Amino acid sequence: MMFLVRSQIQQWKNQCGFSVSTMLSGHRFYKHSVSRRKCVSKSTKSLVSCSYSIEKNDTLPSLKQLSDARVIYAAAPALGHNKEAHPESSARVPAIVTALEQMELTSKFRGSDVLELQIFNLASVDDVANVHAKAYVYGLEKAMDQASEQGLIVIDGSGPTYATSTTFHESLVAAGAGLALVDSVVMSQPRTPPGHHAIPEGSMGFCVFGNVVIAARYAQHVHGLKRVFIIDFDVHHGWKLPWHRKIDQIGKRAGEGATLNLPLPGGSGDTAMRTVFDEVIVPCAQRFKPDIILVSAGYDGHVLDPLANLQFTTATYYMLASNIKHLAKDLCGGRCVFFLEGGFNLKSLSYSVADSFQTFLGEPSLAG
């Protein structure tokens, strides 16, 4: 199992939902060049920082390290992408890292069971352009000059998406962390015959790039994993990933029937989520037979979160992670990558992510 800890730019909306999307590819896959910019990420309690160099180097840990680990994670905090009093705070990832350290869930305490990817390649523009229009990608890169002059700019789109001078670079770091985790899960579990709100043309919500979809295309093109199952349990589940949020919106054109939207009424809690997962998601996944499961893991349904009206608890997220873990084990050799999405109460976010770690370590919920 892989857990990607990163800063996700998110939008709040009134409807609470849960969605599943499937991606099926018949394209031939190809190998990308390993010559990329490299990120060195070091996380120590509340500090997470990245430095960069340009080298041609295999950045992944050894096969033994990958195979021994129960949890592999990468931290890409986007510390420079920050707006005062904005829900999408650069404090989110450092808060999670601090909680993992305090709860003794890092390799310092767990040895080979937990592995942090501290060195990984940035995503290339080509990786991003497999999902987003090149005009949008290059336009965002060009806009960094304006952001550098003004300090903060609003990106054209349908939601309140902002950018600072580091946004483009840090978005490539976050996307690259996701691709490194896909590489890691495939390497650690060799294949036998086998975010989120961003849309292709531009930004949406608080999102710059749709990292889960970028990772899905990467898994298809680079590793030949044709059948990608995406589970999005964020409150504000990916608009334009499932195309719309209504239950009768099931995808378009060649993707018709590949999207399942499951909006939950306000006040829903553990029982509603468990029922939806067991009675709808599991049969859907069993029928699809995925090669890998990618998860948009939003923790903003927690009862303490300020942007939603659901009644989820830390135990709810433990249950979800546990169910997804077993689903991946049964259907695709355990290949599963979590991407951090929403969650804006630092305490509930940190504890919920930590409980997801507990799941994959085979330990009981911290919630008791």
Q: Any overview of this molecule?
A:
The protein has 368 residues and is α/β, with parallel strands linked by helices. The chain has a single domain, classed as Arginase, Chain A (3-Layer(aba) Sandwich). Helix content is 36%, strand content 18%. It is built from ten helices and 13 strands. The protein has helices spanning 63-68, 92-102, 107-110, 125-129, 134-150, 167-188, 211-223, 270-288, 314-332, 346-360; strands at residues 2-6, 19-24, 35-44, 47-56, 71-76, 114-116, 119-121, 153-154, 162-163, 227-232, 259-261, 292-297, 336-340. The strands form three sheets. It has an eight-stranded mixed β-sheet with strand order 6-5-1-13-12-10-2-11, with helices on both faces. Strands 4-3-7 form a three-stranded antiparallel β-sheet, covered by helices on one side. The longest helix is centred in the middle third of the chain and has 22 residues, at 167-188. It is globular, with a radius of gyration of 19 Å. The two termini are 23 Å apart.
Shape: globular
CATH superfamily: Histone deacetylase domain
Mean pLDDT, rounded to whole units? Answer: 79
CATH architecture classification name: 3-Layer(aba) Sandwich
| SSE-based structural type | alpha/beta
Number of distinct beta strands = 13
N-to-C span: 23 Å
Count of helix runs: 10
Unreliable spans: 6-16, 26-35, 44-57, 191-206
What percent of residues are in strands?
15-25%
The name CATH uses for the topology is Arginase, Chain A
List the helices and strands and how they pair.
Layout: E1 2-6, E2 19-24, E3 35-44, E4 47-56, H1 63-68, E5 71-76, H2 92-102, H3 107-110, E6 114-116, E7 119-121, H4 125-129, H5 134-150, E8 153-154, E9 162-163, H6 167-188, H7 211-223, E10 227-232, E11 259-261, H8 270-288, E12 292-297, H9 314-332, E13 336-340, H10 346-360
Parallel strand pairs: 1-5, 1-13, 5-6, 10-12, 12-13
Antiparallel strand pairs: 2-10, 2-11, 3-4, 3-7, 8-9
Helix pairs in contact: 2-10, 6-7, 8-9, 9-10
